[in-house]
Specification:
By secondary structure, this protein is an alpha/beta fold. It is built from nine helices and eight strands. It has an eight-stranded mixed sheet with strand order 1-2-4-3-5-6-7-8, with helices on both faces. Helix 1 runs parallel beside helix 7, helix 2 crosses helix 9 and helix 3 crosses helix 5. The longest helix is centred in the middle third of the chain and has 25 residues. It is globular. The relative contact order is 0.13. The C terminus is likely disordered.
Length: 392
């Protein structure tokens, strides 16, 4: 079944605009190199964070690294609030939500989210990513930490991957700082604590409500590549990240490539929204010229010699779309994980396109809503406490 005529027209306009963006970036590629980097584009403006609970979720932005533009947006669901709380969805609280001092708080798992955009566009605060993360926070009942990693070509490979691991280490460090503060009976905002990572205090939302021992990674398109890299690094780091534990990951239509074309890459090369030729432009902007090859570890998770062994990977849910030229790469990776005895279910959505659950124009489609529900069911399998108890 073919997508609707309306969707096909939207796809044509989207691809025309995307190609123009990438051509402009290609023309200025050498001039714009900047290690500090950028995490957004003027063509994809961000929606402001709102630290009060609106529609069930409060958000805030953080900059955690003084040496780069790396940013975070935290999505906190209102389920963390006690029943008698005055912080209602319709209430306006000056300065936003702040956890009460000296009280025990409900703790939620942390979902570390990486947006899509071919490593060159998008951000953690665009309207579509904000809406998607709000949806995940509410449905999965988790704290979503959306990563605004540095974009190429200003910051080419491995910047985005390094940013992903830097955030995971930051979360682990935050958990340890919060534990020290609680153990020593510190109150307030933890002033006096300063670390070289660039954070001069414990992040209050995560300290009060985050449960780092239940961390899930979620990557969208190229963000799935970053998530898978971070999962591999977490496996190798093991107890060095304690008390943080990556218990599962979700790869949504991963941005995988390879040197030997497969069936979907041939048959669907001109697929909707993101065709193969346009995506190759993005890869050439992301990978340095001397490192550009289709079996680069950033793009091909099954390249020989890439560690750690697949059998050590966390449970991995892979989501693919019927009309996506990258579909078969995601299927192959999911199959390889299952052969290594990893819990790695595959969900393929019929009559769906790349980013069908995360693009603005598609967020309310039946496929997008069904996908969100499917993710929720799978996530709760790995974040539930014994007997469904709450953690305080």
């Amino acid at each position: 079944m073919m997508p609707s005529l309306s969707l096909q027209l939207q796809s044509l306009f989207f691809k025309y605009h995307l190609r123009h963006q990438l051509q402009t970036l290609t023309q200025t590629q050498e001039e714009t190199r900047d290690q500090f980097g950028t995490t957004s584009r003027p063509d994809h403006p961000s929606v402001p964070a709102n630290p009060t609970f609106q529609n069930g979720v409060a958000t805030k932005d953080l900059h955690i690294d003084p040496l780069s533009s790396l940013s975070l947006r935290i999505f906190l669901p209102e389920t963390v609030l006690p029943k008698d709380s005055t912080f209602g969805s319709d209430g306006v609280v000056y300065g936003g939500y702040s956890p009460p001092i000296g009280k025990r708080h409900r703790k939620l798992p942390i979902m570390l989210q990486f947006h899509g955009g071919g490593f060159v566009i998008g951000s953690n605060g665009t309207a579509c990513n904000d809406a998607f993360c709000r949806r995940m926070a509410k449905l999965c009942d988790v704290i979503v930490v959306a990563v605004g990693y540095r974009l190429a070509p200003e910051s080419p490979y491995p910047a985005a991957f390094e940013d992903g691991m830097l955030v995971l280490n930051w979360l682990a460090k935050q958990a340890n700082l919060a534990a020290v503060r609680n153990r020593n009976g510190r109150k307030g905002n933890g002033s006096g604590i300063f670390d070289s990572f660039g954070s001069s205090m414990v992040e209050p939302w995560l300290a009060a409500h985050g449960e780092p021992s239940r961390c899930i990674l979620l990557g969208v398109s190229c963000g799935a590549n970053i998530a898978d890299y971070v999962a591999r690094q977490a496996v190798e780091a093991s107890s060095l990240l304690d008390p943080l534990k990556v218990v599962a990951q979700i790869l949504m239509y991963p941005f995988f490539i390879g040197s030997v074309p497969n069936k979907s890459e041939i048959k669907l090369a001109n697929s909707y929204f993101y065709d193969k030729a346009t995506c190759m432009m993005a890869w050439k902007l992301f990978l340095p010229k001397e490192e550009f090859y289709l079996d680069h570890p950033a793009g091909n998770p099954l390249v020989p010699g890439r560690g750690p062994p697949l059998k050590t990977m966390p449970p991995t849910l892979t989501i693919v779309a019927e009309h996506d030229w990258m579909r078969d790469r995601g299927i192959a990776y999911s199959e390889a994980l299952r052969k290594a005895n990893v819990d790695a279910p595959l969900l393929e959505y019929k009559n769906a396109v790349h980013e069908f659950a995360t693009l603005n124009v598609l967020l309310q489609t039946p496929q997008a809503l069904a996908c969100a529900d499917d993710i929720t069911i799978w996530v709760k399998k790995y974040i539930s406490l014994r007997g469904g108890e709450f953690s305080y």
